[in-house]
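Following the same procedure, sequence and fold were stored together, as reproduced here:

>
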Amino acid sequence: MLKSYEAIYDHGQFRWKGTPPDVDRARVIVTILPPQESDDSGTQKRRQPPEILKGSTRILGDIVSSPYSEEEWEAMFERTARQLEGDPEAFK
């Protein structure tokens, strides 16, 4: 079974973001992800749902890869918030 591990590739070295794989040698497939927006500490900024959604869902973590852009995620959050507020146009 294949397993995935997240790491940062920095000047020829991998910095594992969690427990590294327990292997001495392995074949690997590397997928380069686009850069993510980060603050000065180098950590990724997390999306924040609209105020109306706070407390209604439990966010378990950021999505590692997604077919949607940041703008599309924001639009989906806003549409869901409008639906919860009862806006009939948000259901179209």
Observations:
- Strands lie at 7-10, 13-16.
- The helical segments are 70-84.
